[in-house]
Amino acid sequence: MKKLAFYVAFFLLSFIANAQSDFETGMQQAFQLWGEDKAQDASALFERIAQAEPENWLPNYYVALVNTTEAFRTKDKETIAKLLEKAQNYQDICATLEHDNAEVMVMQAMIYTAWIVYDPMTNGMQYSGKVMAIYEKASVLAPENPRVMLSKAEFEIGSARYFKQDTSPMCAAIKKANELFKTEKQPMPFYPKWGAERATYLVQECEKK
Are residues 60 and 130 in the same domain? Predict the structure, then answer.
């Protein structure tokens, strides 16, 4: 019986280790594809990982992030709408799995922001207030999260410039986020860590003013 129990335990541990290895390998491959500017391939692989890991919010998050990022880079209206619809579908799953997570909140705010950029006249009134409400809540939950700080400040600075208002408070927040990125540590593998390059760029833009 002891031998049988040992072999069962060994089999289970081996199975868990292999599952973890498959997840990690798949995530690394997806990031590599994304880094090679193969966004569609990266999204498809993240989708497959999400199906294989139904309780894990991270692959769903990255499907949403890849597609939203592509929406900001694309000019074709029909393509943008499809990208954002897919992003929202996976964001909804992500939000169901991970409650009160500032990273997930930022992702939703980004999707709404992309819709504003898609059609400012139609979507600005509908989504602007929602975006700010999300950032306010995320800031309370994670006041030192550089992505929350950076994304909130960048959204605010766009509005301030449009209405010819002082942008120095937003620039100060961007500079603080830039410093926080330098010391940020991931609490788990594949946890969101994007934003440092954008923060550096925006600091330079602020210094031009």
Answer: yes
Q: Which of 134, 153, 183 is the last residue of a domain?
A: 134
Residue 34 CA from chain centroid, whole number: 14
pLDDT beyond 90 at 183: yes
DSSP 190: T
| Position 146, amino acid | P
CB neighbourhood size of 160 (10 A): 17
Number of domains in the chain: 2
| DSSP string covering 134-173 | HHHHHHHH-TT-HHHHHHHHHHHHHHHHHTT---HHHHHH
- Percent of the chain exceeding pLDDT 90 equals 84
The stretch 101-129 carries a mean pLDDT of: 96
In this structure, the answer to whether residues 90 and 40 fall within a common structural domain is yes
Is pLDDT above 50 for 15? no
